[in-house]
Amino acid sequence: MIAFTFPPVIANLWFREILNPMETVGAVVHAAFFIATVVLLGVSGPRVPDSQVWNNLTVGTSGWTLPGVTFGLGLLPAAFSTAGMDGVLHMSKEVKNSRRNVPIAMTSAVIANSIIQWITMVVVCYRLGDPKIIAAAPGGTTIIAVYMQATNSKAVTTVFIVAQLITLFVSLFNIL
């Protein structure tokens, strides 16, 4: 974890000139990855019934048996996509008309990422495939199992996971 966060910390302290290009790369990969994920999972892989997506809360497979705890823990990954919004606040002294523009930027980031994440998760939920395969996937690798079931290709799955890791890595530059 320290090795993963070390480059963003160093960049924020001593190499600030690379932050804008890194954020641009992250934004492009983020947008492209979102579109590619929705298209790929929207058309390929096993589709689960509507009732499994909207009426089913699976508990116990992660080791947590209380539905409220399971639901709350499931929200943690979703919260990560909105964690970087306070980066704008830290730079508010450099923003023109900050009293107006900073809240707009923060709110827009949260709203846009929440919409993108909701759409992505609905598509992913419809393409979960066999729940036993997903539940048996080691912690943190369930999305890999979803892509593998949808594409049947290690190469395509690897490309999508690398794109996701790039997006997460670049977000650390803002978060930290």
Structure description:
This protein has one domain. The chain has 176 residues and is mainly α. The protein is globular and about 50 Å long. Helix 2 (19-43) packs antiparallel against helix 9. The relative contact order is 0.17. It has helices spanning 2-14, 19-43, 50-54, 67-80, 86-90, 98-126, 131-136, 142-151, 154-175. The protein has 9 helices and no strands. The mean pLDDT is 80. 73% of the residues lie in helices and 0% in strands.
Describe the structure concisely for a colleague.
The chain has 176 residues and is mainly α. The protein has helices spanning 2-14, 19-43, 50-54, 67-80, 86-90, 98-126, 131-136, 142-151, 154-175.
Straight-line N-to-C gap:
13 Å
**Which structural class fits the helix and strand makeup?**
mainly alpha
pLDDT averaged residue by residue:
80
**N-to-C SSE string, H for helix and E for strand:** HHHHHHHHH
Q: Tell me about the largest β-sheet.
A: none
- Segments where pLDDT lies below 50 for 5+ residues? none
Could you say how many structural domains there are in total? 1
Radius of gyration over all CA atoms, rounded: 18 Å
Query: What percent strand?
Result: under 5%
Shape: globular
Percent of residues in helices? over 70%
Query: Got a strand count?
Result: 0
Number of helical segments with 4 or more residues: 9
Sum up the structure in keywords.
176 residues; mainly alpha; 9 helices; 73% helix
